[in-house]
What we know:
Strand order of the largest sheet: 1-2-4-3-5-6-7-8
Shape: globular
Strand content: 15-25%
Largest sheet: 8 strands, mixed
Radius of gyration: 16 Å
Distance between the termini: 28 Å
Structural class: alpha/beta
Helix content: 40-55%
Mean pLDDT: 98
Number of strands: 8
Amino acid sequence: MTLERPWGSLNYLDEGSGPLVVLLHPLAEAGELWRRWIDELTPHFRVVAPDARGHGDSSWGGQQFSVADLADDVAALIEHLDAGPARVAALSMGGCTAVALAVRHPRAVHSLVLADTTADYGPDKAVAWGERAEKAVTVPREKQLLFQVDRWFSPGFLERDPAEVERVSRIFTETDSRAHAAACRALGAYDDSARLGEITAPALVLVGEDDYATPPAMAEALHAGIPASHFHVLPEVRHLSLVESPHARALAREHLDR
């Protein structure tokens, strides 16, 4: 399915029936990342999983975009579906997009699951993300995987489910390096930390205990800033908690059911 936007075509998966759940994927991934969870949720929900600009099958003309732009895309999609407000579950970059959505389009959001994410990557974010943007376009994608996989998954998960690791890795290697770099720059410029108090939707904040990409302190800051939020640390889990951890998905599902 596609939605035409001023910048191009926004691709999205749309499966199941029931209350609307929108799943927002991490950096350099795509809506298909959520396949396992989509299959778990669709007996009970209508699940929509968009591809961010230049990710997956969404088009992109090469223009720089911001996290707020990504949030506007999601708001337009929810309006197009005429099924909102949406229960939004999001991971990493998708979580930043979800925060921006809840701040800028509060009527589009019924509730939030914010996993392994932040509203501000800190004082050195522009430099750090600028370096990652440069690597995104200069290092072959297969050679970026060692760094990525170590951040994404715990050693235990790498042993337990190599097929899922391979599937997630394949989505990453197929992502447009230029869009990956643009998204890095967007994250380096993103800061909604001063606006968290404006979020009215109830939020569940999840973080892997061993997530060193967006560590627990960043999740604690989200929880402290969002008035109606709950916070949970997931033992022995790294960055892609909602992919790695059935317990994380169970907690998220419980929140989505409310």
